[in-house]
């Protein structure tokens, strides 16, 4: 089964769950006076779930042929291991680590290490340039966001910031 | 109209707004030039900045500047290194790159700059004429018609956006609308589909979704396939920017025709700059005399001028449905709509009456932006082209960092970053399987308005009778069905015919 039909199946399952919630569980908490309204919170989701289920079934059952040969400009997922998959996964992991560390480690430290490790993963080895570029970028962005735009970004690790 | 132009002039020519135009054009040109980064990612990255400016006209001027700057930058990289940064400048590389290889890169860039300028300016004039007329019609619309109009817009996007796979595009659109129903709606005072998670109470963040749908997959594609950002083989010598009188005479009618055609294509929902540029190229090749037809693809100035004026005019044209109906016709204008909503402006026919300064300032700033792109970029092109040499090892971590920052300062919440990464992975997988992503985002942005208008009409008519009691609503809904059914019917028939005469393939 091709990837697009697997995806259609996953979407179908999501839509079934969504439709189940819209048809059977959502209306239970509705106040009696609201039941006289012609439109309930679940009305629109009900319509949507039916349409989405029909569409995903059509794709799943192969009513719409996929375009066959992948375009040369696009990435062929069947040969995914030919590409730099490791780098991509490592960068995604780095992004998750950044998300988790942003608050506890502070903006400056986590950003400098994110940019440094990111270019390291991609194969850059000019350490001095990497450190300088990351530090300058982190400093400038922090200044712009925190001071110019006025959105608070805690710059230092939690244990150094007083009252953080 | 004169009064409007004066309002626009006085708003657009404030120091901040001029700075916004200049800054937007420069940023757009710079980033649009990097191969593999499209205008949607750039605008998505710029949105948090635009929103925190706070002034809607300044924000829209900035984002519009980024938009046409990106298209312009894309044409530069198409011509110089045959690596279009933007889909709508692919047609530019057909004739632009051969010209550069012949050592006429300077001439090619000049032709491109002049055509873009003319296309953008003619587009802005047409926008000024069309938009008020369309808005005065749209004022007669009722919420039922709005609902129907949005359905038409969404089906047109589904019909034209996919690579001939209408059902996939339709499914993506519906999925977008479904995602918009998560969280607390305006009409019903209850959270829906939040699964008890506090973080979903206010729904999915629009910036997060825009980043996850466009910027992150594009960055991941660049990582996966290094050849996409290849910058070797650039012709570094750019000299002799002048064009001859004969060439100027040859491209003038092309620019005129393609600006108008491109604008009209841009107005249609779902079409847009990419289709306009390819169609413009094809039309000009077909109507050219025999001996000139041979030149197309080998370095014809006409073949370069056509897609360049068409795509810029189409960009301007796509602002018509956005500003008059509040319905975006493309992914880029959908992102702009999202930004406007975040700034408490609801685009639509009332925009011209309630906040004329926004409407007219945007139009005037378009002229200004075009002039700036012309005078700023022509002398600077040789230097700007140097940015093409930025190593990807530094570029990619920075793109990823800016997507993260955008999602973070939008919501000030690090859970948002995890949502961003999660959706980004989903979007990349969807892109592998050839599911179009723009319909999903447009569905998401229009979803809430769609439901609001639907609910309002249901309440007014006490049921779904508004569909058959209002002829205009019915007509629009029928049109929507035709838009979706017709392409798939024709594709099936074409396939059946192809199978009938199968030659073993």
TrEMBL record, chain A:
Coiled coil start-end: none
InterPro entries documented for this protein: DUF1468
Sorted UniProt keywords: Membrane, Transmembrane, Transmembrane helix
Start and end residues of each DUF1468 domain: 6-153
Transmembrane segments: 7-24, 44-63, 83-100, 106-122, 127-145
Keyword flag Endoplasmic reticulum: no
Protein name: Putative tricarboxylic transport membrane protein
Lineage, highest ranks first: Bacteria, Pseudomonadati, Pseudomonadota, Alphaproteobacteria, Hyphomicrobiales
TrEMBL record, chain B:
Domain of life: Bacteria
Protein name listed in UniProt: Putative tricarboxylic transport membrane protein
InterPro entries: DUF112_TM
Annotated source species: Roseibium hamelinense
Segments forming domain DUF112: 18-441
Transmembrane spans: 6-31, 43-67, 79-97, 109-134, 146-162, 169-190, 202-224, 263-283, 327-346, 358-381, 393-410, 466-486
Keywords: Membrane, Transmembrane, Transmembrane helix
